Fold each of these.
Amino acid sequence: MFIYNCHGYELVKAQSNTSEDFFNRSEVEYEINGQKFVTSVLYVRFFEEQLPEMTEIKSTTFYDNGNETVELRDIVALALIIKNPAYRGRKRIYINEINQFVNELEGVDFDQLVGYARGIKQNANNKVKVTI
């Protein structure tokens, strides 16, 4: 599998009567067996705030050297497609339960994911090979 891009962002309200500003979106662009996919994970932002109480994750910032930052929201989608083969090829994943969010991230090697995310930005080909 090749990873071309992974990033995340906080949604903002498009209209005053929506609840978009309560959510984060994480996206990963990748290729498996010559076929390209983009998978988007939408989850409640509050879940990130609860992680220190429910997991060993104590900060949502995994890397920051002043010029480059890797946040949890940047690598959630990448974590899900690597950990769970059933998510590969899906366009959208919606997580609205804190227990599901915690379970999906349990056992994930975040140092490895940060390495992939940083590698994409540093690689001239803008892709990183991931063995799954």
Amino acid sequence: MNKEEEMQEKAIQFELLKQQVEAIEKQIAELEAKTSELTMVQQSINEIKGQRGKEILVPMGSGVFLKGNLASDSEMLVELGANVVAGKSAKETVAVIQKQLKEIDRIKDQMREDLFKFIAQMEQLEPEIVKYYSEKK
């Protein structure tokens, strides 16, 4: 393999790493949004304690709400996955949310490690690629 082919290969490798970095950054941002959503749900659960019978607004989607009364401030319906829903106490629901938050944090930490590895590889490749193509001109 001659120098030109080697540099082309390194440039391709650099672009692939760049795409992986962008994908990981996007996934981390999505996980951050999920973390925010779960944190807001957890806060809402804490806020409804003692509010049984009070009027609430139930989100229907797309900015549409339905007025209703809070039938229970202690039992929640929680999606367990695959469209399976189970009744849980407020305390159990918060525990499920906390477990999900911990798992998201673990995944984000792993993704950040991968991100740093890819960035380090890019930083190693970039000077050599830039030098080669600037000398080639």
Amino acid sequence: MAKVLPEDVYYIARQKGTERPWTSKYENFKEVGTYYCAACGNPLFKSDTKFESGCGWPSFYEPISKTSIIYKEDKSHGMVRTEVECGRCEAHLGHVFDDGPPLQGCVIALMASYSTLRKPKKQKSNTTTKTKNSLKR
């Protein structure tokens, strides 16, 4: 059964639209988890690869795997850019910019209304208390 996408997600994912900068619910989002494609559920990015780029969209410096996203040349709007698509369903996710943080290469500016964030599942433990440091990766 095909999934019907909400209108705003369809506009970005299938029509290669763009949401306005600084309007995404994930722009200043700090919670730990994994960002997934809203259309097909493909894992895209871990929250620990997200950083503040100042571009107005959530930005990541590394996908979750080499196959989780696809890079394609985009010659639209009178410029040449690198588009990022979902590796499974080829939905538009955003664009790569080569002004990322030092030593980490490119920025992937994600159209975040097109993604969902799932928090990691809590693991059961034999101990009753955990320190803050034991929860860090």
